[in-house]
Amino acid sequence: LSALWQQFGHAVRDCALQGTALLFAEKEYFDDVREDKRKRQERKKKATSAPDNKPAAKCCLTDSSTVVSIAQGGGQATSSDSVGNAPIVTDAQLRESMRPLASSMERTSRQKREKELDRAMDLLINANDRGTGCRRKVFDVQFDNKSADSSHLICEPSEAEGCSHCAPISPNVCCDIHHPLAFSSFDTVVPQPPRLPIHSRLAKYTMGPQEHKLCEALEDWRDQKTVEIYGRSLHVEQFDEHAKSRSGT
User: Fold this and answer.
1) How far is CA 212 from the centre of its chain?
2) Secondary structure of residue 238 in the 3-state scheme
């Protein structure tokens, strides 16, 4: 998460300007995709364990957007007691959920841990469904930004607003959860590929005894016609060249 926040900061350096950062993530890291996968596995398990072995009903799933900073709906977001389907969590709860589990770290191997998603990154991607209420809040809790809110006043106590260089700058646009309209221009619709036309599938052909006899008869007929039209000498020369090419000499 630290490296990601540094990359976001490279969007713009001038304090008079405002930059926009988009985070792209694989679809398997989104909670809704994980839930759909879990439900499919449960349906498959029930279908295989059923006595009549009836096939499970087909379910058409729509791929969710893989852009974290793009709003899922239009309109200006307003503060409420819940975000998505989960209640808003406090900073202490969010900080606790970011800590890695010691038991899981001991059980899993190093190679498997490298493939797993960091818990703070997981909360950032699914902030709208985990009750965080703000994607920027994940960074604030991770880096404990509240403890540095008053450092600019200590740096320049003679000024009412503190040091202008150290004072934190509040952006006009927070994130796609609070300001979805600011990210509507980045929203994209992934077109579904056209369905392939139905065509027949030919099985792999294997020659049988009758087919081999037919090939031998055609070879004999070709040799006979060659002798009738061009003479036996030309046929012998062609046979010698064919034999040499097959033997590699």
Assistant:
1) 52
2) helix
DSSP characters over 211-236: HHHHHHHHHHHHHHHHHHHH-HHHHH
> How many secondary structure helices (H) and strands (E) does the chain include?
10, 2
Gap between the Cα atoms of 36 and 42, Å rounded: 10
Strand partners, 86: 83
Per the CB < 8 A criterion, the answer to whether 129 and 118 are in contact is no
Under the phi-then-psi rule, with left for phi > 0, alpha for psi from -120 to 50, and beta for the rest, what region is 134?
Answer: beta
User: Cα–Cα distance between 222 and 230 in angstroms, integer?
Assistant: 12
Q: Which of 94, 92, 112, 95 is nearest to 104 (CA)?
A: 112
pLDDT tens, 90-134?
Answer: 878 888 877 776 555 555 556 565 667 888 899 899 988 888 888
Which one-letter amino acid corresponds to residue 85?
Answer: N
pLDDT digits (tens, 9 = 90+) for 177-231: 989 998 888 887 778 888 888 877 788 888 899 999 999 999 889 888 888 887 7
Q: Is the pLDDT of residue 9 over 90?
A: no
CA distance 145 to 134: 15
Q: Choose among 64, 68, 35: nearest CA to 134.
A: 68
Q: Which residues are 82's β-sheet partners? A: 87
Structure tokens at 195: 């369905």
Angle at 213 between CA 207 and CA 217, to 5 degrees: 130
